[in-house]
Design a protein that fits this description.
Beta-Lactamase, 51% helix, alpha+beta, 6-stranded antiparallel sheet, 13% strand, 3 domains
């Protein structure tokens, strides 16, 4: 038998087998990737559902940290109050004395920068950047990087999601945004009374209520009308907070294009219709709290970000 090249029929068979192998390999890889994507999506969905069920800052911090550890070697959620950073929850380290992890922002340049800017930040895990307390607690190697994601409510950092090592920043930023939206819902819809220990949410100033009514003064309203105005304000805050939670990419895109209404017109129109039906038609003193909240929270008090086609505030004449 000749030791030369295989006959054409065998070469054809080899080619077909090679193509079949490549196809099967691609299918396996594709199936594996799809399974991983489904698993991640389910993890994020479950995390958001758990966040929505959390009530206090401590509960929200626990859910956020537990969800985030999948995307980092180690993570923690800190509360920020009057220049002091206090750890609420930590994962990825074999220590449970969380209460000991507390330090002033003057000892951690990265924490101070995130609180000041309100933007995520990557930093080297050094004592000057993330504080001697964090370095001692986590035992970070010198080549580690840390990522800090601020939890901003009413333009103020009330907390920070901290992640170090191998970090999937996109997923962590999404989780941080979800936590912020839930914090806003809790803060803005809860009664303004002293909260139970552990909530640590009392330092957020409530939005103005009485002076935004169309009546000559809050005292001029009947008890029933006052209650209706308060309900309308809570409705508006929750609706806009949920827009930020479930449509965060659209909010970012709308701000960038200076056309939030084009990016969110369906959900804005749906909320406006509900506000018109349930509140505007119910009282001649009603004002459009939904518009005020959209302007304040989504557009950062910059009307030009709403877009030229934004219909503007509803009035008592818009009852139909």
């Amino acid at each position: 038998m000749s030791s030369g090249a295989p006959p054409a029929s065998l070469r054809s068979l080899f080619s077909e087998l090679e193509q079949l192998f490549q196809t099967e390999t691609q299918e396996r890889v594709s199936t594996s990737v799809q399974a991983a994507e489904r698993a991640m999506a389910e993890h994020l969905n479950q995390s958001v559902r758990r966040l929505r069920q959390a009530g206090t800052f401590a509960e929200i911090a626990a859910v956020l940290c537990d969800a985030s550890v999948r995307f980092a070697d180690a993570c923690a959620v800190f509360q920020v109050d009057k220049g002091i950073v206090t750890c609420e929850r930590v994962r990825g380290v074999a220590r449970d004395d969380v209460a000991s992890l507390r330090f002033p922002t003057t000892e951690a340049a990265a924490f101070a920068a995130v609180i000041e800017s309100g933007e995520p930040l990557a930093a080297i895990c050094s004592a000057a950047e993330v504080s001697p307390a964090v370095i001692e607690f986590f035992g970070h190697p010198s080549n580690y990087k840390a990522f800090l994601f601020p939890l901003m409510v009413d333009r103020r950092a009330v907390g920070i999601l901290y992640a170090a090592g191998r970090v999937e920043s996109a997923a962590l930023e999404l989780l941080a945004q979800a936590a912020v939206a839930v914090l806003e819902i809790r803060l803005r819809s809860a009664p303004r009374t002293t909260p139970a220990a552990g909530s640590a949410l009392v330092h957020i100033a409530p939005p103005v209520a009485a002076q935004e009514t169309a009546a000559s003064g809050w005292d001029a309203l009947s008890p029933a009308d006052r209650n209706l105005h308060l309900r309308a304000q809570r409705f508006a805050r929750v609706q806009v907070a949920e827009m930020r939670l479930y449509h965060s990419d659209a909010v970012k895109a709308g701000r960038a294009r200076q056309d939030l209404y084009a990016a969110l017109h369906e959900v804005i129109d749906e909320a406006r219709a509900a506000f018109r039906r349930d509140f505007l038609a119910a009282s001649p003193t009603m004002v459009d709290y939904l518009h005020l909240e959209v302007l304040r929270t989504l557009a950062n008090d910059q009307p030009n970000l709403l877009g030229v086609n934004y219909p503007g505030p509803l009035t008592v004449d818009d009852k139909a």
